[in-house]
Amino acid sequence: MQEHPDAVPLDHVARIQAEWARERPDLDVRPQAVIGRLHRLGALLTEQLCAVYRRHGLSEGEFDVLAALRRAGEPFERAPGELAAHTMVTTGAMTKRIDRMERDGLVTRRRSTADGRGRVVALTPAGRDLIDQAFGAHMRNERRLLDTLSPDEAAQLEALLTAWLSRVEPPAPGG
């Protein structure tokens, strides 16, 4: 059988869907068209983003912590629990990240002046310089990745993803 000259070759997800449709015609495999592609795209994007973090000597989690501290504004500090909430990681994982970044001179820890029992994590000048450089490179990388879409396509995708996420993601505490 000859393929039509205008036919688009099946991508990885379409091939999987076709196999499942053949093997399980009783199931609706159409959701894979969206979910499967989002999953693959997410993995590809994560690898492209992490490459930039690695060039700055950071893991994805360390980038997240430094970025959360930088976004806090002067004096660029947050409590560890607040950092965990801003980066969606457990406090145990946060402790390990902070330990490494403290050893590398990127953050410091001190007792909270508001609550003597609590601790505060703050960016050092070296940490601020690093996150400012890494974030600039990160934004240029995201622009490069997004520029594979037209401005109209990007706006449509943003609107669709915003609507979908608002229906699936639980509301943020206090928001």
Order of helices and strands: HHHEHHEEHH
Task: Using the CA coordinates, give the radius of gyration.
Answer: 22 Å
Helical content band: 55-70%
Q: Beta-sheet strand percentage?
A: 5-15%
**Sequence of strands across the biggest β-sheet:** 1-3-2
Report the uncertain regions: none
List how many beta strands DSSP finds: 3
The largest β sheet comes out as:
3 strands, antiparallel
The shape is elongated
Helices, by number, come to 7
Main structural class: mainly alpha
Mean pLDDT across every amino acid position? 90
Give the N-to-C terminal Cα separation: 57 Å
Explained architecture:
This protein has 175 residues and is mainly α. The chain is 63% helix and 7% strand. It is built from seven helices and three strands. A three-stranded antiparallel beta sheet has the order 1-3-2. α3 crosses α4 and α4 packs across α5. The protein is elongated, with a radius of gyration of 22 Å.
Short description:
With 175 residues, this protein is mainly alpha-helical. It has helices at residues 12-23, 31-55, 60-71, 80-87, 91-103, 125-146, 151-168; strands spanning 77-78, 107-111, 119-123.
Spell out the blueprint of helices and strands.
Elements: H1 12-23, H2 31-55, H3 60-71, E1 77-78, H4 80-87, H5 91-103, E2 107-111, E3 119-123, H6 125-146, H7 151-168
Quickly list its features.
single chain; elongated; mainly alpha; 3-stranded antiparallel beta sheet; 63% helix; 175 residues
